[in-house]
Specification:
This protein is α/β, with parallel strands linked by helices and 209 residues long. It contains 6 helices and 6 strands; from the N terminus they run αββαβαβαβαβα. It has helices at 2-33, 67-81, 94-107, 124-134, 150-160, 182-204; strands at 37-38, 49-55, 85-91, 115-118, 141-145, 164-168. Helix 3 (94-107) links the parallel strand 3 and strand 4.
Length: 209
Amino acid sequence: FNMTTKRVSIGVGAILLFCLLFWAPWIGVTIWAQQHVLEYDDFFSSYTYPAVLVFGGLVNEGEGVSEINQERILTGAELASRGVADQVVLSNTSDAADRMSEYLLENYPELKGRVVLDNQAIVTSDTCKYELSEHPEQRLVLLVSQRYHLPRILLQCRRLGVLGKGFAAEELEVIDREDLGFWTTLNIRYNRTAREAFFIWLNILGIYT
């Protein structure tokens, strides 16, 4: 009985240690990122950002623009429309970036001529690398994605030398979010957060930069 209890205690301790090590970097990065994430009330009319970078999500061939991408695109467009930013940079793979641009201009035709396509982004850091290659002077830009995604974006961009402030796509409530129920929403949020924690570890280890 004592041996079994000891083994259980060791097993529980190992699981707790693993959980601590797995989540610790994500917790630290998330706390650090809060000082670099803006709310709309933080903007002042006296300053206009040169660009808002919209980080594109996965777009499946033959499908329309997903809800998660719609929210990012419309938020970036709305910021430009309100005079917060001069340009909207849409970042994704070639075909996906084109579809993002079409969707934006369908909803904000007045922004034609202010949309820039970065159609070479396969992973998150590619957006940061494109910005730095096009603007080595390190201009201060806005980085738009969902709130769960921003800490890793800020981490990767800062480590690559891109100066940016995060802005959550949910902030302006540009789309009506479907009510998926408590447990489905909890499951989605957990999976997304765990994925971010995993990629933050890979970034720290220099595997996913």
